[in-house]
Structures are given as structure tokens and as C-alpha cells.
Amino acid sequence: VQLQASGGGLVQAGDSLRLSCATSARYPMGWFRQAPGKEREFVAAISWTGSRTDYADSVKGRFTISRDNAKNTVYLQMNSLEPEDTAVYYCSAASRLRGSTWTSSFPKDYVFWGQGTQVTVSS
After folding, report:
1. 34-77, pLDDT tens digit by residue?
2. Cα atoms found within 13 Å of the Cα of residue 19, Cβ hemisphere only
3. What is the DSSP letter of 30?
């Protein structure tokens, strides 16, 4: 399974970015992020059907995860970015054997990981 994340960059506080993650099939997907000196943390997840989404409290109302299964691509729309959102963002995929509404906020539940894309938000 190949996961290719893209869309990161350097923006100012209040700006928006959209991350994309191209996959090879319809997997339950998650976005995680890791800032320097910190552990990897959950950002958002979406079931393989797209019928369920979950968010970390820190991004609720600002970030939106979505998917286009015709393109096997998952997106993370990030609005009202804050300096605290600065991190390397990773997309991840879980087993296709999961149920149609399955999501998880735990890194251990994801089997495949992309290479990460840097998001830097300046104040």
C-alpha cells in the first residue's frame, strides 16, 4: 500500500491549507501530526465509506476530513490555522477488513503510513 501525502507548506495564522493523501484502495484513513519534541497525535479519521468522521478536540470546527473514493484520495481541509498546528502531518490507512463506520484515533490501529508533509504556521 502506498500513501502519498501532499499539500503542506508555510502559511500565516488564520490561513487555510488542504492536504491530500492518495491511496491505492478504499481504506479507513486517519491523519496524525507530530511536532518537534512531541509525540504523534491524532487529528482526524474517516471510515472507508466516508459515512463517519472523527476529530481531535483541538481541530474540531476548523479542520474537515473528506474522501473521494472515485479518486482514492483523502483530504484534510485546514482552516483558521494556528501556530500550534505546526507539525509534520501523516496520513495513515487501516485494514480494509474494518467495518463501514469504523474509525480510530489510535496510531496502533493503522497499518500503513505515508511519508509526511510539513505544515508550518507563522504568527
Report:
1. 999 999 999 999 999 999 999 999 999 999 999 999 999 999 99
2. 33
3. E
